[in-house]
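Ticket opened by: R.M.
Priority: normal
Category: complex prediction / small molecule

The reporter submitted a protein together with KG4 and asked that the result be attached to this ticket for the collaborator who will pick it up next week. Submitted input follows.
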Amino acid sequence: MNDGSILGIETSCDETAAAVVRSGEKVLSSVVSSQIATHQPYGGVVPELASREHLRAIVPVVRQALADAGHTYSSIDAIAVTQGPGLAGALLVGISYAKALSFAQKKPLITVNHLEGHIHAVLLEEKQKGAFDFEFPVLALVVSGGHTHLFLAAERDHGWVYENIGRTRDDAAGEAYDKVAKLLGLPYPGGPIIDALARKGNPRAVKFGPAQIKHLNRGTPRARQTPFDFSFSGIKTAVLRYVQVEGMQESIAARQQALAQIVKLKADDVLALCDRKTLDLVASFQYSVVNDLVAKTLNAADERGARTLFVTGGVAANSELRQVFEAEASRSGVPVYFPSRKLSTDNAAMIAAAAFPKFRAAEFAQADFSAEASLVLR
Ligand code: KG4
Ligand code: ZN
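Result attached by the on-call engineer:
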């Protein structure tokens, strides 16, 4: 089975997505229905609302993906679905739908780990450019709203195997962006807006020393064993303290009120409502997060002898992260690959692509599997 069109379904968080991908590399369609408007008033994803929105969107989104690809329910070769990690209720919507479709259409069903999906977003696009050979081991930083992981990947049999050599102890990097945005009265999700605003501020204005991003138990034997772990809750608290000490609460409340009146919010509308202090603060926050992500990843690459770097997940869309990674990685001589911005955030093309090696190996799911909110990648 060297060819095959796979319908991918992704509902692990706040995007209902479906896509058809041929042979793990040709994206025939990719439809993403975002729930941003639903979660925006809460400044973060509300799990119950996410499940409800997936239920509403799943049928039209899959129909659209098939139509865009020129496929029908019966013409696809297999169905792939995210099994985890993610929100259990949200995952269940995609899984139940995929199981029903697989049963009704007698199509094989393949389960995919969402984190491996993010890694395949990179592979998929590199294959499209004709690059098939990566030097191993590959070190992949998967950095999103729910995850901050470092995986050392090697090739085995028909696919890749992974060793998780670093993870966040508390908040994910994207979660820190979203929480900082919320506490500064900026719209959800925080990543894209902070990315845009940070360009206008001074990244050295507020000093978030390494003490703000530290292991809770620095110096302990466990910390020494896991030198590539991350922690982002400290910097979020430091931003909060800065806001309090500098008396920024009133201007934050005023911004929140003004933004609530605008129907179709653009980055320029938000920029017009931010003073210098706020711009400097977000620029300094981003500078600190980006440098921590890059420094730990490059240290890990160096210590573990990685020959290739992948940076993927929603936060990989960040322009400063891309710039700093590219500059630092080229100095160290290790090539670094990112997905396009569209495939950095959650989508189903990456799920269909990640399923392809399993499709070729006829590694199909049994009917009794369920959602695994904390599914690990090995
Ligand atoms: O991969 P993703 O769509 O969902 C998860 O698997 O979590 O990532 C969403 C996260 C959000 O936290 C969002 O704020 C962040 O990615 N994000 C960004 C940018 N675009 C999205 N963070 C920093 N800079 C960006 N440009
Ligand atoms: Zn994701």
